[in-house]
Amino acid sequence: MPRPSRFIIDLAHLEHNLTQLSRLAGPRKTMAVVKANAYGHGALGCAKALENQINAFAVALTEEAIALREAGITKPILVLQGPHSSDDLTEIARYGLWPALSNRQQIHWLQHQTPNLEHVWLKVDTGMHRLGFDPQEVGEINAVLTAMGIQRITLMSHLADAEDSDSTLNHRQKQRWQNLLERNTGASDGYPNASFSNSAGTVGQLSFEESWVRLGYSLYGGSLVAPPPTLDLRPVMTFSSRIMATRWIEAGETVGYGGRWVAKRRSRIATIPVGYGDGYPRSAADGTPIGTPYGTILLAGKVSMDMITADVTDKPDIEFGTEVTLWGDSPRIDEVATHCDTIGYELCTRITDRTPRLFNR
């Protein structure tokens, strides 16, 4: 029998989350972000489930988009990093992708190649200071692209602090965005031909003039923003396994590498066959919650490559074969992440292929 550890991907939850988020999006078009293998959930499986319900997809890299195209995905796909070379731009045009342009080198390749592009996005730096044109450059770049015969141009930017709706940075970016739109956009269905809201901006209901929302982490049931009471996001990924062994140790004995966890009493320790080789974070602290049918148990000792250990002293019904949930409904991935000094985004994108993904609907 194979090891009982697995990732269950619930496509019905994925579709449910899209329905919930689309309600928040209102008249804005929805873009499903499936970069980094759909945040670890499996890009092709998730894209097939969503294709008939969204307006477009987004990925980070051209090769991610090509893999979807060659697997039969026909909806528009935005390449968020745009071309990394002239050859990359050729492939973007060949596969009918939408490039996001953010620097003059990309414009240079475009001018010297003049590929047939249906739709170009311009990334504008309103305060993230990672990628994008200065807002003052946008009028010039727009004119260059229009002169090349490109008819569809969408402006985009990215929130640097969407988790804090009242932050000074948010207010500054919003003002720059509004100034940018006043100078550079026309209307599309009553909204500027532009996109600013990511998952956090959509869930947090930050108000922007735009025609698109880019839905990423929230599609998969996670959120760094407290959702409105009416929003029901369900975890798409459940990381589960089963207890493979239990043992009693005496007070003062230690568990795991380096002896970090020390028994304060006679304790019963359970071993679970998952570790950082599967994507369970080595940074997980003692006390990280693990779900069972009998209530929550707590991580005890450092995470190994292939195994973790938990204190089950007060759970006498737990035995060999008891199912455990590393993250899913309980605990949620964002809760686990707080015990690892990181965010749920990192946990789900760093899972490995050693543990199978099983798609359910």
From TrEMBL:
<dbReference type="Pfam" id="PF01168">
    <property type="entry name" value="Ala_racemase_N"/>
</dbReference>
<dbReference type="Pfam" id="PF00842">
    <property type="entry name" value="Ala_racemase_C"/>
</dbReference>
<feature type="domain" description="Alanine racemase C-terminal">
    <location>
        <begin position="236"/>
        <end position="360"/>
    </location>
</feature>
<comment type="pathway">
    <text>Amino-acid biosynthesis; D-alanine biosynthesis; D-alanine from L-alanine: step 1/1.</text>
</comment>
<dbReference type="InterPro" id="IPR020622">
    <property type="entry name" value="Ala_racemase_pyridoxalP-BS"/>
</dbReference>
<dbReference type="InterPro" id="IPR000821">
    <property type="entry name" value="Ala_racemase"/>
</dbReference>
<keyword id="KW-0663">Pyridoxal phosphate</keyword>
<dbReference type="GO" id="GO:0008784">
    <property type="term" value="F:alanine racemase activity"/>
</dbReference>
<feature type="binding site">
    <location>
        <position position="305"/>
    </location>
    <ligand>
        <name>substrate</name>
    </ligand>
</feature>
<comment type="function">
    <text>Catalyzes the interconversion of L-alanine and D-alanine. May also act on other amino acids.</text>
</comment>
<dbReference type="InterPro" id="IPR009006">
    <property type="entry name" value="Ala_racemase/Decarboxylase_C"/>
</dbReference>
<comment type="similarity">
    <text>Belongs to the alanine racemase family.</text>
</comment>
<keyword id="KW-0413">Isomerase</keyword>
<feature type="binding site">
    <location>
        <position position="130"/>
    </location>
    <ligand>
        <name>substrate</name>
    </ligand>
</feature>
<feature type="modified residue" description="N6-(pyridoxal phosphate)lysine">
    <location>
        <position position="35"/>
    </location>
</feature>
<feature type="active site" description="Proton acceptor; specific for L-alanine">
    <location>
        <position position="257"/>
    </location>
</feature>
<dbReference type="InterPro" id="IPR001608">
    <property type="entry name" value="Ala_racemase_N"/>
</dbReference>
<protein>
    <recommendedName>
        <fullName>Alanine racemase</fullName>
        <ecNumber>5.1.1.1</ecNumber>
    </recommendedName>
</protein>
<dbReference type="InterPro" id="IPR011079">
    <property type="entry name" value="Ala_racemase_C"/>
</dbReference>
<dbReference type="InterPro" id="IPR029066">
    <property type="entry name" value="PLP-binding_barrel"/>
</dbReference>
<feature type="active site" description="Proton acceptor; specific for D-alanine">
    <location>
        <position position="35"/>
    </location>
</feature>
